[in-house]
Amino acid sequence: RKEFVDLYLNYVFNESIREPFEDFMQGFLRGCPATKWKMFLPVELQVVLQGHTKLDWHLLEKNVMYRQYKKSDQTIRNFWTVFHKLPEEKKKMFLAFVSGSDRIPGYGLEHFKFSIADPQEEHPDELYPFANTCEHILFLPR
């Protein structure tokens, strides 16, 4: 029985996917030569490819730049009060709304910057918050 299980597992995890995986690996290595990846430890490579998954939301708040706002403005204080009460999943959804990804790139949260800007509309109550994901800007009406 042990031999059967070993052979079956080898087939499922190795033999049955060998050809598609070799095609994938060949294409991947064409765009990203293996010599470049050898400088990373496995944990470092995972961060480079996936980004950071654990986030310090207070550090994110500290790194925000304000446009047409001051940190002491009531709108900003209300925003951060509500934000810090959100569950982790909703905070990640906000990050995806602002940046296009729910993860922080490999260079780390301390270097990740985003801005909160006032769209300066005549009727701010008629406008929803919106974002520019390319420049990491949240347009937050007053």
Summarize the structure.
This protein has helices at 2-15, 18-31, 34-37, 42-50, 57-62, 74-85, 88-99, and strands at residues 65-67, 115-117, 130-132, 137-139.
Helices and strands in order:
Blueprint: H1 2-15, H2 18-31, H3 34-37, H4 42-50, H5 57-62, E1 65-67, H6 74-85, H7 88-99, E2 115-117, E3 130-132, E4 137-139
Parallel strand pairs: 1-2, 2-4
Antiparallel strand pairs: 3-4
Tell me what the structure shows.
This protein folds into two domains: 1-39, no CATH class; 57-139, Hect, E3 ligase catalytic fold, CATH 3.30.2410.10. Helices cover 50% and strands 8% of the residues. It has seven helices and four strands; from the N terminus they run αααααβααβββ. The chain has helices spanning 2-15, 18-31, 34-37, 42-50, 57-62, 74-85, 88-99; strands spanning 65-67, 115-117, 130-132, 137-139. It has a four-stranded mixed sheet, covered by helices on one side. A hairpin with a 4-residue loop joins strand 3 (130-132) and strand 4. The longest helix is centred in the N-terminal third of the chain and has 14 residues, at 2-15. It starts with a helix and ends with a strand. The mean pLDDT is 86. It holds the Pfam family HECT. Its EC number is 2.3.2.26. This is HECT-type E3 ubiquitin transferase.
Key terms for this structure?
alpha/beta
